[in-house]
TrEMBL record, chain A:
Domain called Peptidase M48: residue spans: 162-333
Pfam families listed in its UniProt record: Peptidase_M48
Biological processes annotated in GO: proteolysis involved in protein catabolic process
Gene3D superfamilies in UniProt: Metalloproteases ('zincins'), catalytic domain
Protein name: Peptidase family M48
Segments passing through the bilayer: 103-122
InterPro entries: Mito/Outer_Membr_Metalloprot, Peptidase_M48
Lineage, highest ranks first: Bacteria, Pseudomonadati, Bacteroidota, Flavobacteriia, Flavobacteriales
UniProtKB/TrEMBL annotation, chain B:
Protein name per its UniProtKB record: Uncharacterized membrane protein YjgN, DUF898 family
Keyword Transmembrane among record annotations: yes
Originating species: Flavobacterium swingsii
Alphabetical UniProt keywords: Membrane, Transmembrane, Transmembrane helix
Coiled-coil regions listed in the entry: none
Pfam entry (one): DUF898
Transmembrane residue ranges: 72-93, 126-146, 153-172, 202-225, 246-266, 299-321
Domain of life: Bacteria
């Protein structure tokens, strides 16, 4: 069967459009037409490339793509498309494209869901496990670097620091690294641990404390972070999250990268809550091991709660589980676990000295 | 009587004769009318001459973008799927499909541009580009092994900077040769050694002037590259000047700070204008000038809506964003001139080596066009 239509031919030598009558012989599987120079040209279906545009259809010669025919006759185009489909001349890529908007949307949402799942569950798991591969010496070097930098901008109270170190020595901390405590003069009601075993305590939180058991709770909590290499885990998580997000969004644009980056920060904040919870449990254990009143831990959290500057941050944005929740958790542990409390005069004296 | 005749607007010569007027008044009035009609006639012939000229010489051109979001979305999603399934190896093919769509939906006078580059060509380039980077790092490691890291680093950076112009050259050569309109290929005829030499000179001057010369670097590079682009027997020219470009950017920078970022969109308009308005096409004595009609306000609206689309679709709307942007920019480029687009001759060779294109891609350089 032969069908024909009006078409425009470009011969690859000049840009002059040539109006031609294009014939398609379905049995012989060829196109043929007469150029304006009166040459007859035959193209086999197999030797041709087909391109569907929004308002036209282009046939090109595979050997020389500069030779092309443009068809605008929609009847002929539909006929040709049906014929190509019947004879199996549609590329697999074109078939995927032809699936249509609905199927594409489903694919997109599935991929997005898959990426989301691997970002939330698979990536952090792998990243955390990968920490084992990072040598401990790296923790130490990184910690030394950060502590040098952060202590440069702060004023260290060396007398109180010395006392705090003595205080910590009196405790059984199950530490696998040498610990070094530093007291920094600041109103901030907080403390932090670095991966090398450096623990920085702000005088603000020391001033807020009322008893030595609170200080033991604080030390226990921070030591747990060091023992579990939490900083390194966080770093690996953030880094892998960042790499993952930028790999996925890599070839879109800057705006998306920024959105992705911020999403990653939010994510890593809520990740760290798991670590905080773990540190609370282990800190509680240290209190019990040292026969110090575990009430100190809930009291410590009350000090954090009393601190106005920390008050308004909603749970989602805060890196610590909301303090009331932490207090409740500790109260539950106090009720469920058996422990004995012995007064420790040495710790008490040292605590009084630090408080001065 | 005098009064009535003056109020009559549709006054004719005959009528004036009939009116009994003082001789001087009559003659003055006559003279005025003669002058008036002479002027009118002259004007009319001028207009006629002008229209005749433009009919014979001025041609109509229209750039447009026909793509639509859901079609482009399909292309991108299939690319995405195949890239994930092949662990990234599909990337060169994905890039080819994307470029084929974007070029293929761009039209000049209703005929589409085309990108003929294939994934296979770009994959080969990709492998060569990786080989090159491995070799570069190999040299660095070798010198570190010899405990001469300084020499290794110097060589590494020299080679790295030498690769940049070579990559730009290769990328244009490939990209242009694989681009066509009505079967007429574009082509890049720049000389690689000349570009490398110039590039080093411009980079040197930029370093010596603490970056100020960077503006000239950008404009010189653009002029050199565009000046060497052929479209069949049509040549392209860019006449941007580093000094003007620098002043425009200084103005844009400070006004953006002063207006807390709002001027940014007008700065973008200026940059786009500066790029487009300095472009022209030449064939023998005839030419086509390009003119941008974008406005800061429209770019502002376009960008805000684009950002909202991206945020609310978690990035899936990037297809629509790109299509909207292409459509806006292309429909705001006007061409005016006398070149007959029906008589362009094929002059450029096929060129299939995509290595430069891939190096550029790996370095994420996009700074020329």
């Amino acid at each position: 069967m032969i069908i024909k239509t009006a078409a425009v031919y470009f011969d690859g030598e000049s840009s002059t459009p040539q109006n031609v009558e294009l014939f398609l012989d379905k049995n012989k599987e060829i196109f043929y037409f007469e150029t304006q120079k009166n040459d007859w040209i035959n193209w086999g279906i197999k030797e041709s490339d087909f391109k569907q545009k929004s308002d036209s259809f282009i046939i090109q010669n595979k050997e020389d793509v500069s030779k092309s025919i443009i068809i605008k006759d929609s009847l002929f185009i539909n006929n040709l498309k049906a014929y190509l489909k019947e004879t199996g001349n549609v590329s697999w890529h074109q078939k995927l494209i032809n699936l249509g908007f609905k199927v594409h949307s489903v694919i997109a949402i599935t991929i997005l869901g898959f990426i989301g799942l691997s970002y939330l569950y698979i990536m952090p798991y792998i990243a955390e496990k990968a920490v084992v591969l990072v040598p401990e010496s790296y923790d130490t070097n990184l910690g030394n670097l950060v502590s040098k930098q952060s202590l440069m901008t702060n004023t260290v109270d060396s007398v109180k620091s010395e006392k705090l170190n003595q205080f910590a020595k009196e405790l059984k901390l199950n530490n696998n690294k040498n610990l070094h405590f530093t007291v920094v003069n600041s109103d901030i009601v907080n403390a932090y641990a670095l991966p090398n075993g450096d623990i920085v305590v702000f005088s603000g939180i020391l001033d807020a404390m009322k008893d030595y058991d609170e200080l033991v709770a604080l030390i226990g909590h921070e030591v747990s972070h060091v023992n579990n290499r939490d900083s390194m885990k966080m770093l690996c998580r953030n880094l892998s999250g960042y790499l993952f997000v930028s790999a996925i969004l890599g070839d879109t644009n800057g705006i998306m990268a920024i959105i992705g980056d911020n999403a990653n920060t939010l994510q890593s904040l809520s990740f760290s809550r798991k670590f905080e919870h773990q540190a609370d449990i282990e800190g509680f254990q240290i209190l019990i091991t040292n026969h110090v009143n575990p009430k100190g831990m809930s009291n410590l959290f009350k000090r954090l709660q009393e601190d106005k500057s920390d008050f308004s941050i909603p749970e989602f944005l805060s890196s610590h589980p909301i303090t009331t929740e932490r207090i409740n958790d500790v109260e539950k542990m106090i009720q469920s676990k058996s422990f004995s409390v012995n007064d420790n005069p040495k710790l008490k004296t040292l605590f009084e000295e630090i408080k001065q | 009587m005098l009064f009535t005749s003056f109020t009559n607007i549709f006054i004719t010569n005959d009528e004036i004769d009939k009116i009994d007027l003082a001789f001087f008044a009559k003659s003055i009035l006559k003279n005025i009318l003669i002058l008036q009609s002479n002027y009118k006639n002259k004007q009319q012939t001028n207009i006629m001459e002008h229209t005749e000229n433009s009919l014979s010489k001025l041609k109509n051109y229209k750039l447009d973008f026909h793509g639509n979001g859901s079609d482009f979305f399909g292309i991108l999603i299939v690319n995405w799927l195949l890239t994930i399934v092949t662990l990234g190896f599909y990337y060169p093919w994905a890039k080819a499909k994307k470029l084929q769509y974007l070029y293929g939906e761009t039209s000049l006078n209703e005929d589409r541009f085309e990108f003929h580059g294939t994934g296979k060509e770009m994959f080969k380039g990709f492998i060569k580009a990786i080989g090159l980077f491995i070799a570069l790092y190999g040299v660095l490691l070798f010198f570190m092994y010899l405990e001469m890291p300084a020499i290794g680093l110097i060589l590494f950076y020299l080679a790295f900077f030498a690769v940049l112009p070579v990559a730009i050259h290769g990328s244009y050569k490939y990209r242009m040769s694989r681009t066509s309109w009505r079967g007429i290929r574009f082509g890049y005829r720049g000389d690689r050694n000349e570009l490398v030499k110039n590039f080093f000179k411009w980079i040197g001057l930029t370093i010596v002037t603490f970056g100020i010369y960077g503006s000239w670097l950008a404009m010189n590079l653009r002029s050199y590259i565009i000046g060497n682009i052929k479209f069949g027997d049509i040549e392209m020219k860019y006449k941007g000047d580093g000094g003007d470009y620098l002043l425009m950017n200084i103005k844009g920078y400070f006004l953006t700070i002063i207006t807390l970022g709002i001027y940014m969109f007008w700065w973008q308009k200026d940059m786009f204008d500066y790029y487009i308005n300095n472009l022209s096409l030449h064939k023998d004595d005839e030419k086509i000038e390009l003119e941008s009609t974008v406005t800061g306000g429209e770019i502002f609206t376009l960008s805000i809506v684009n950002v909202l689309i991206l945020i609310f679709t978690l990035g899936l709307g990037s297809a629509w964003v790109e299509v909207r942007t292409m459509k806006y920019l292309l429909s705001n480029i006007h061409l005016e001139g006398t070149i007959d687009l029906d008589t362009i001759k094929q002059t450029e060779e096929n060129y299939k080596d995509a290595t430069g294109e891939d190096i550029e891609d790996m370095l994420e350089m996009d700074f020329v066009m």
